[in-house]
Amino acid sequence: MKVKFMGAARTVTGSCFIMETGGRRFAIDCGMHQGNGEIEKRNWEKKAYDASKIECILMTHAHIDHAGLLPRIVKEGFRGSIYATPPTLDLLKILLLDSAHIQEMEALWKTRKHLRHGTDLTTPLYTVADARRAVALIRTVEYDTAFEPFPGMTVNYRDAGHIL
């Protein structure tokens, strides 16, 4: 098994691990980098993976530092299933749409500022439409229920007590 640490390495935020095993590729979490401006620039960096080649994403929980880039990966071509527990889905419906709204408002504010100075326009990291597409890909699995995202891999969500 190969593991690529795409975030949460030397930092607390941006949790995302790309796993490869038996010719299959999946992700655990897809989190947003949060903190100072330098850390947050990582959200805009070109990713070291092809989103369309990831078969599924396993969500550990709904915090934005674990889920905040789901709309971006969907925008970049991910079309697989995103697995989460029902309570995680309930929270992601709110958090991802709110995050997308914030992305759009910040881009609008920066664009207005740039227009005054004659510089380039700003686009949001992702939009509300991207967030809705991400939410539509989420498949729920109850706690303590084994499932196979693909043949040969069994997953079982446990309540860790971290968020719910």
Task: Describe the secondary structure blueprint for this structure.
Blueprint: E1 2-5, E2 17-21, E3 24-28, H1 37-40, E4 56-58, H2 64-67, H3 70-75, E5 81-84, H4 86-117, H5 128-136, E6 138-140, E7 147-150, E8 153-155
Parallel strand pairs: 3-4, 4-5, 5-6
Antiparallel strand pairs: 1-2, 2-3, 7-8
Task: Summarize the structure in words.
The chain has helices at 37-40, 64-67, 70-75, 86-117, 128-136, and strands at 2-5, 17-21, 24-28, 56-58, 81-84, 138-140, 147-150, 153-155. With 164 residues, it is of the alpha/beta class. It has a single domain, classed as 4-Layer Sandwich (Metallo-beta-lactamase, Chain A), CATH 3.60.15.10. Helix 4 packs antiparallel against helix 5. It is globular.
Short synopsis of the structure:
This protein is an alpha/beta fold. It has one domain (2-95, 129-155): Ribonuclease Z/Hydroxyacylglutathione hydrolase-like (Metallo-beta-lactamase, Chain A, 4-Layer Sandwich). It has helices at residues 37-40, 64-67, 70-75, 86-117, 128-136; strands at 2-5, 17-21, 24-28, 56-58, 81-84, 138-140, 147-150, 153-155.
Number of domains: 1
Task: Report strand order across the widest sheet.
Answer: 1-2-3-4-5-6
Can you tell me the residue ranges where pLDDT is under 50 for at least 5 consecutive residues?
none
Measured distance between first and last alpha carbons: 30 Å
Level-1 CATH class name: Alpha Beta
Question: How many H/I helical runs?
Answer: 5
CATH homologous group name: Ribonuclease Z/Hydroxyacylglutathione hydrolase-like
Report the structural category. Answer: alpha/beta
Tally of extended strands? Answer: 8
Query: What is the CATH topology descriptor?
Result: Metallo-beta-lactamase, Chain A
Largest sheet: 6 strands, mixed
Provide the CATH architecture. Answer: 4-Layer Sandwich
Radius of gyration: 16 Å
Mean pLDDT: 90
Beta content comes to 15-25%
**Pattern of helices and strands:** EEEHEHHEHHEEE
Instruction: Tell the overall outline.
Output: globular
